[in-house]
Amino acid sequence: xxxxxxxxxxxxxxxxxxxxxxxxxxxxxxxxxxxxxxxxxxxxxxxxxxxxxxxxxxxxxxxxxxxxxxxx
Length: 72
Prior knowledge:
- This protein is an alpha+beta fold and about 70 residues long.
- Helix content is about 25%, strand content about 20%.
- The protein has 4 helices and 3 strands; from the N terminus they run E-H-H-E-E-H-H.
- It has a 3-stranded mixed β-sheet with strand order 1-2-3.
C-alpha cells in the first residue's frame, strides 16, 4: 500500500481515487483511502454492549458524567 502525505493528497486527489493508500500527517498514518469494494459495512453493536453505556447520566454542572465527577 502506498503512503502519501495529506498535503499531496489534497493537491492530487484525483490521482488517488479508487486506489489503496495510507494517508500520513507528520509521518504518522491518520487515515486510509480505499475503493468501496474493499470497505466492510459497520456491524450493529450487540444489545448487551450498548446497555452498559445507558447507566451513565450527564452532569449539567460539570459537563461530564455524574458517576465520574461525584455529583449526585
